[in-house]
Design a protein that fits this description.
The complex is a heterodimer of chains A (202) and B (212). Chain A is mainly α and 202 residues long. Chain A has 8 helices and no strands. In chain A, helix 4 packs antiparallel against helix 5 (82-98), helix 5 runs antiparallel to helix 6 (103-124) and helix 6 runs antiparallel to helix 7. Chain B has 212 residues and is mainly alpha-helical. Chain B has helices at residues 2-13, 15-36, 40-60, 64-88, 92-96, 103-124, 140-149, 153-174; strands at 187-188, 208-209. A two-stranded antiparallel sheet of chain B has the order 1-2. The longest helix of chain B has 25 residues, at 64-88. Chain B is extended, with a radius of gyration of 26 Å. The relative contact order of chain B is 0.05. The chains are: A mainly alpha (202), B mainly alpha (212).
Chain lengths: 202, 212
């Protein structure tokens, strides 16, 4: 009994250690991209003609992104803690992808990251309330998009902010009705598991 | 070393960018916390942090009205409703049974999410936006109010009607139904031997309506 708990503790320590090592590696990759070492490496290793033939000449940051994703999946397969690895990899690739861009593209990329996280959570989670939380996250990502467009594309009439106001209104209505539906389903079936919501199954 | 000097001067000249990166670095792990935390009540409270950092992003984008609305509607209103719903639906159950989906589903969802992100990024990345270099008017709340009461007054009214209908509907849906009296004949009890205590408190012993 004690040996099994000791082994579990050791496994957890190892998983956290892998995750920290991955964080350091991600920092190195992002730093290499930000200081231009990755560009030099591409020139030196002869990868530049390949990128040019795919019309991806100015897209060196994609290389950093792919590197981070590959490193992350390797560490996760080795037994690292997946949630920390996902968070670190997302922040690192976000840095690499937006470092030299216009602010509008930075905001749009952040919104895309949050939207993708919301989509992932919506598919993965089995609690209905958590699914509603993920939907709120996705709606917020859309709001960031709209406000960024209002700031950088249309600063006179700020139509994006108007649309964001309507999105917030509809999100409030959606949250109220969705949670009421979850409550009444819970009252009838005494579960909030998404995979047991088969009330309409005949 | 000169690269650190470069970074320092860059940070001093781009305070807005630095603030953006700080807020983004806060909001992305918090968003992961919302969808991955084991105790779902905690992820309900982490959601406040996500909404707060997005409020900061709105302030950076000079949308003061929206930042305040974000704080009041999302970070207080919607999160409060979600936490109350969590308390009413027994969140302790999730800890043991239903934390996440099957690993195959998780992998598929991860691939779909990364693919979606890459699609959005590659379509957003080309630098042919028609950007406007004008600064945003600091009194853009006035512009918003004027637009809401003139050009957009019809959607505004529709939004208020939608909110009213949705809130009435939510109250109707969430209202606890009265336990039926034993004498009424359009209900029959699924649990026979429960006697007069059939209607109280236990949802799994609640009477089943026969007509559905």
């Amino acid at each position: 009994m004690t040996s099994s708990t000791a082994k579990a503790t050791q496994d957890r320590t190892q998983a956290v250690f892998y995750a920290i090592a991955y964080a350091v590696a991600t920092m190195f990759v992002v730093g290499a991209y930000a200081t231009g070492s990755l560009d030099n490496f591409v020139q030196y290793a002869g990868l530049a003609p390949i990128l040019e033939s795919w019309q991806l000449k100015d897209y060196t940051e994609l290389l950093a992104f792919i590197l981070i994703v590959l490193l992350g999946s390797t560490v996760a397969l080795l037994g690292g803690q997946t949630s920390i690895i996902m968070a670190v990899g997302t922040v690192g690739s976000f840095f690499a992808l937006t470092f030299n861009q216009h602010p509008l593209i930075q905001y749009l990329t952040l919104a895309a990251v949050l939207f993708a996280i919301g989509l992932y959570g919506m598919v993965v989670s089995r609690n209905a309330v958590r699914v509603l939380m993920s939907i709120e996250l996705m709606l917020n990502a859309v709001n960031i998009n709209l406000v960024a467009f209002a700031r950088y594309v249309d600063p006179v009439q700020v139509k994006g902010q108007l649309f964001a106001i309507f999105v917030i209104t509809v999100a409030a209505a959606e949250a109220a009705v969705g949670l009421a539906i979850v409550l009444s389903i819970y009252r009838n079936t005494s579960t909030v598991d998404m995979e047991r919501f088969n009330l309409l199954k005949w | 070393m000169e690269q650190f000097e470069m970074l320092k001067t860059w940070a001093e000249t781009n305070v807005e960018s630095v603030m953006f990166y700080i807020l983004a670095t806060i909001s992305i792990p918090l968003a992961y916390g919302v969808i991955l935390d084991r105790a779902i009540i905690r992820s309900g409270f982490i959601l406040i942090g996500v909404f707060g950092s997005i409020c900061g992003l709105f302030l950076l984008l000079q949308a003061q009205f929206l930042a305040l609305a974000q704080l009041m509607i999302y970070a207080v209103g919607i999160t409060l409703v979600i936490v109350i719903a969590l308390m009413l639906t027994n969140p302790r159950m999730e800890r043991t049974q239903l934390s996440t989906a099957a690993p195959a589903n998780q992998l598929g969802a991860f691939m779909v999410a990364v693919g979606l992100f890459m699609t959005i990024y590659l379509s957003v990345r080309p630098e042919n936006w028609t950007l406007s270099s004008e600064p945003l008017d600091s009194a853009n709340v006035e512009v918003l109010g004027r637009a809401l009461t003139t050009d957009y007054s019809l959607p505004f009214e529709f939004a208020s009607v939608l909110l009213l209908a949705a809130l009435i509907g939510a109250v109707m849906l969430a209202k606890a139904e009265k336990p039926p009296k034993p004498g009424e004949d359009d209900y029959e009890y699924s649990v026979v031997d429960d006697g007069p205590t059939a209607g109280d408190a236990r949802p799994d012993k609640e009477p089943v309506a026969s007509g559905r």
